[in-house]
Amino acid sequence: VAPIAAQTTPIINVTIRGVALDGDGVASRCLLVQTAATCKFENIAARFASVACIETSTVTGSASGLNYIYQCAFENIYIKASASGIGMLLAGEPAGSGGNRTVFCLFRQIHITHDDGIGLKLADTDDNAFINVGMSREAGGTGYGLEIVGDDADAQDINRANFFFFIWPGPGGVYSNGSKAKHNFIFGLGTEDGPIPVSVSGSAKIGYIRDDALSNVYWATVGSSAVAIAHTGTTSETVLATITIPGSSIGPNGRVKITTS
Q1: Is the pTM of this model over 0.70?
Q2: Highest mean pLDDT: which range of 73-77, 101-105, 176-180, 242-246
Q3: Per-residue exposure over 159-196, b if at least 16 CB sit within 10 Å of its own CB, e if not
Q4: Residue in 166, 169, 204, 154 with CA at minimum distance from that of residue 87
Q5: How far is residue 103's CA from residue 35's CA, in Å, rounded to a whole number?
Q6: How would you label 58-79 residue by residue, b for 16+ Cβ within 10 Å and e otherwise?
Q7: Judging by beta carbons within 10 Å of its beta carbon (0-12, 13-18, 19+), is residue 208 exposed, middle or buried?
């Protein structure tokens, strides 16, 4: 689903409903949606694509004034990924400078079975809502259930302000990496079958509230000192740094965490 080469406007108001798509390990994608707005994809089964069963991206230079996936809905979808393939890949303009991404879209009632590939991968997204999304990893599989990429070396790879309203990433867990992955939050991280691993790297941030009420809300930096201090230890009180905490920055019953490096 994409504009033809000569077209200067996005695909608008297209609905695809009630189809089964089989990549048979040969097709790179079962459903590729490029440069589309206010479209709807529902009651779809997709399986065995070599790269990704469902992928969103954009067509470079097309769709004057709107070169991204905008306000589309993906609902009631079942995906069975190939052994190394991705279930659903949400991206933007290939090798672009940024700004063209999957944005303001709805993803609801989606189940993904995956293996060594990633179940749901966010590669370039902004302000999307995910409701009732679950991943099941095959026995012996190694892929993450949910990966949110914020690679600092790539001008794209911005993933921010995505909100998940109950998601069960399965044993593959959640992995967020890079400082461009930020302001993403999970309301209801499913753990009914056991602990779900959540890991971050490269200054990525993700907050979540588990379905057993335990939470991880990332810390905000309110002050820092860039001055190195050499100190070998003493029994006397020693001022290493003075940091001002702004008023009302932690709220009632808030906490302050001090880290050193």
Answers
A1: yes
A2: 73-77
A3: bbebebeebbbbbbbbbbbbebbbebbbbbbbeeeeeb
A4: 169
A5: 11
A6: bbeebbeebbbbbebebbebbb
A7: buried
